Each structure stands twice: as C-alpha cells, then as structure tokens.
Amino acid sequence: MMRAPHIGLLEAGARGTIADVAGVTVGHCTLAQGAVQTGVTVVRPHGGDVYRSKVPAAACVINGFGKSIGLVQVEELGVLETPIALTNTFGVGTVANAQIRAAIAANPRIGREDPSVNPLVFECNDGYLNDMQGLAVDEAHYASALDACREDFGRGAVGAGRGMSCFELKGGIGSASRIARIGGHVHTTGALVLANFGRLAQLTIAGDAVGRTLHAARDACQKPEQGSIIMLLATDAPLDARQLRRLAARAAAGLARTGSVYGHGSGDIALAFTTAYTVAHDADFIALPPLVSDARLDPLFQAAADSVEQAILDALFNAETVAGRDGHRRLSLNDALKQRP
C-alpha cells in the first residue's frame, strides 16, 4: 500500500496522529454490514471528566452546510463540556442523547442543582454508501466508541469514517501531527479529520494534480460539491479561546491545498482545543498559564495547516475500497492509483 508524502517542513510527532498531544485519545465503533456502512468516532481531550474539567476550545465555520450540535455554546463560552463525537448526519441527535446520558451518569446533579451539559456532535453525510434512512446508529455505539478511546487508533474507513467519500474516492478518518518551536519551547499540534468532500478532478497531493489524471481516465462528469469535512485540532500550546479560533481558521489553508473550494453543499467546520490547562466547573476564578503571544503564533498556524492537509491524505491513503447500499462502491485511492495509465 502506498503511503502519503510528508507535508511541509515541520516534523511529525512519534505517532504521527492527534494522540501525539499528551492526553488525547480516539475511539471508534464501526458498523459495516451490507447497506449499513457507518459508525461513531469519539475524541477525548483528556482522561478525566470533561464536564468537571472543561477544555478551552473554539470553532471556525468555513462553510456552514452542516447539522452539528453544540457549536453555539462553544462559541459563547469557549470550552468543551463533553468529548467530541463524530457520526453521520441522521445520527447526530442520537449521539447527543448518549453524551447527555454519559454526563448525567458521572454527574447526577446535571440539569437539577447543576447547569445542563453541552453535547458536541459533528456530522458528515455518508448517504452514498450508507443507508442513512435506516438510522442504524444508536446510543450504545457512542458508549462503545468512548470505551475504545486509545492513543493508538485506526484510520481510514473506520468509525464515523466508514461510509464517507473524499474526492469521489473512499474517504474517512485521517490524523497527523506537527512539532512547532516557539521561544525555546516545543509544542505539538495534532489534527483529526472526518473527510467527506471534494470532486475527483480537484484532488491535489503535495502540489501534484493527481485528480486530473484519475478524472480523465474515468471520463467522469464534474458534479457540484456535496460533501463535508470536520477538522479537529488539538495543541498543548497555552492559548485562550480567541487564539484557538484563530488556530482553527488555519485548518482552511490545509484543506484548500488538497483541492477543495469549500463548495456550496459542503459543511466545512474546524474546532481547536488546548490541553495546556483546564477550567474547573466550580471555579470562582480561573488561573491561566502564560499564553503564547499573538505575534508568536505563526509556527502553530503552520502546524495546523500542514497537519490538516496531512490528515486528509492520511484518510485517503489508509482507506480501503468499500461497497455499500444499492451496489454503490467507492474505490480507495491506492486502488485508483493502480489503475492510473
């Protein structure tokens, strides 16, 4: 199997995934049987109770064709209160309910003496391969993905990525990391993407317009963009929510370099969080560590753009060919490249 080329000048972390940011883990629950090709992926920012120890975060909506839950409160308060969940479009409500139940189980005062909890679920439409009308995702699948969270995790056609398409090939879950040095300090930034976007002719790999050749070989017609991508960025650099939103915005640079134009029907959303500190639920005051100066953020911006681009390629190169509903099939990039003239 061919591997993706290394993107940019920054080095990767030891694993080359978002889990290079200490404390971050990822788990999948994959449903792959006949017309059901879908699943749930969970990203835990730390191993504790995220409701009690909230994580600074911010989102950037690049193109808002999406059905996510929880973004309004993240924008207002600048923290996460649950792990981050990914699934298909019709599974969002079910997974949000599962997040709420899990938070209540750990904190029985939620919604009574304590405030409610803000579930955070992102989605992409996997309806080409998966029978979304079957509503196959249930609350137990979230619990299974949460329980499966580890530093070492699968990529490609797994979890929420099982039924996703990318550049009219098989897409899914991809991840990458980059090391940035600021004022003598070393910081890791990692990305995880749910890649489900793009037209084949647009596909660009490390500057090489590979998609043009593959598109011509298929004699395919150009269709409007109807996909989406969720881009999650984790960093151990001490940033506040305003700076994290700036970091999330740089995900768009990495996305664009793969050939995306953020089409009308594409939901392109980035969220960035830091593990450098947490915000206690019951705190009267918040003690912040010294934050990175805005004037010193460029290495982190570079790490964000490069790791997102690398993560998209990681999803493509790790995915397998998948057949789903009504005989629909998505060829993996590796299988497509074998057929290239």
UniProtKB/TrEMBL annotation:
Record-linked SUPFAM superfamilies: DmpA/ArgJ-like
UniProt-recorded name of the protein: Aminopeptidase
Secretion signal, residue range per the UniProt entry: none
InterPro entries, per the entry: ArgJ-like_dom_sf, Peptidase_S58_DmpA
Keyword terms of this UniProt record: Aminopeptidase, Hydrolase, Protease
Gene3D superfamilies in the cross-refs: L-amino peptidase D-ALA esterase/amidase
Family (UniProt): Belongs to the peptidase S58 family.
Tagged with keyword tRNA-binding: no
Record-level Gene Ontology MF annotations: aminopeptidase activity
Superkingdom of this protein's organism: Bacteria
Species, as recorded: Caballeronia calidae
